[in-house]
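Title: Comparing notes on inverse folding

I've been comparing how different people in this forum approach sequence design from structure. To keep things fair, I'm posting one structure and asking everyone to reply with a full sequence. Here's the target:
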């Protein structure tokens, strides 16, 4: 049985807003150039880490049913993967086809072969394996490829959660001890070899599951810790607090050491998961998450994620003549409102498709739901 956790609605809405403003700032042209290197510029660029919050939250929600006194049994890979894809794919496919068509019309694209390959690449979750999709107005769709990769391995991670002993904490610590240093080395090596195939490999590495697995596993650990220690105040127990506090302190001190090699994705991932846990524990977040508007943004956040970047790109040329800050406000209101409307349409369209296309169980056989 699903359990509603109101503070997650607030965190999800805030993470989606952060990603929206990150992409808005990236495309703001003269405004971004005018603030290049400032704290404001850094803040907007770091809002991309809202994706890490989404990853930890996704794993948290998927892991909760496998915690507690009466956890679900280990999921069978086939049915579990199919169930998850039926949740993700209908809205995604509608967004890919719809926004590809709109992009052709708005930007008067003539390379229809390239357009068709781009659409196929999106639909088959190939974006994380090639550089070209990251230069388009649907670059954010790489995240769906990452979610599918996590979906494929989750049944085996769930079995690890059910094992006695370290469980998800051990899963996280092992993956972090191996993959975060490896990712840091790959990123540093790629930066040292500009223009080479290894630089391309290093760039794509950070968008695939090996680099991101620790943040997902940390979400599973938080789910288990919350079930074991949840209550007033800090809900994740001493072990999580010591690790997150110590890890944040370590990354900060490391950054102050002259000549120390960068830690790469590890720093952003640790701080993002720590922010997620801290926001979860804040007393006011549950009340915020119960607000009707916040809950609505939260429930539509998947569709908003799919719609916001293409819509921002459509509004860019139309607002190019405005004062930079006026343009920023106009795009916030216009693309933000349009994203909400598009998300609602995607939700309704996906429900219609799912009802008609999803196989129904035969009489006498239980449904996979």
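Reply #1:
Here's my take.
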């Amino acid at each position: 049985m699903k359990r509603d956790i109101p503070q997650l609605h607030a965190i999800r809405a805030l993470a989606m807003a952060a990603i929206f403003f990150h992409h808005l700032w990236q495309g703001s042209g003269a405004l971004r150039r005018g603030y290049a290197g400032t704290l404001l510029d850094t803040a907007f660029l770091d809002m991309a880490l809202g994706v890490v919050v989404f990853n930890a939250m996704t794993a948290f929600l998927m892991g909760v049913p496998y915690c507690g006194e009466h956890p679900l049994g280990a999921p069978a890979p086939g049915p579990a993967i199919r169930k998850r894809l039926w949740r993700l794919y209908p809205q995604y496919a509608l967004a890919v086809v719809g926004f590809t068509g709109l992009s052709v019309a708005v930007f008067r694209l003539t390379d229809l072969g390239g357009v068709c390959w781009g659409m196929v690449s999106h639909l088959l979750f190939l974006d994380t394996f090639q550089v070209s999709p990251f230069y388009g107005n649907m670059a954010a769709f790489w995240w769906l490829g990452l979610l599918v990769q996590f979906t494929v391995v989750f049944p085996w991670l769930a079995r690890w959660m059910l094992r006695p002993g370290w469980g998800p904490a051990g899963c996280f610590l092992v993956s972090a001890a191996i993959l975060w240093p490896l990712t840091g080395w790959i990123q540093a090596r790629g930066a040292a070899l500009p223009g080479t195939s290894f630089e391309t490999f290093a760039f794509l590495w950070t968008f695939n599951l090996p680099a991101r697995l620790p943040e997902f596993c940390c979400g599973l650990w938080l789910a288990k810790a919350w079930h074991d220690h949840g209550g007033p105040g800090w809900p994740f127990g001493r072990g999580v607090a010591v690790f997150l506090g110590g890890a944040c302190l370590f990354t900060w001190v490391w950054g102050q050491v002259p000549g120390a090699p960068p830690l790469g994705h590890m720093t952003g991932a640790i701080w993002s998961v720590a922010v997620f846990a801290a926001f979860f524990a804040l007393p006011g977040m549950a009340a915020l998450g119960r607000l009707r508007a916040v809950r609505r943004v939260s429930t539509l956040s998947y569709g908003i994620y799919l719609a916001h970047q293409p819509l921002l790109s459509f509004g860019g040329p139309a607002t190019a003549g405005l004062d930079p800050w006026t343009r920023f406000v106009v795009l916030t209101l216009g693309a933000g409102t349009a994203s909400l409307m598009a998300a609602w349409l995607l939700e309704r369209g996906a429900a219609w498709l799912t009802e008609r296309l999803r196989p129904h169980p035969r009489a006498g056989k239980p449904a996979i739901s």
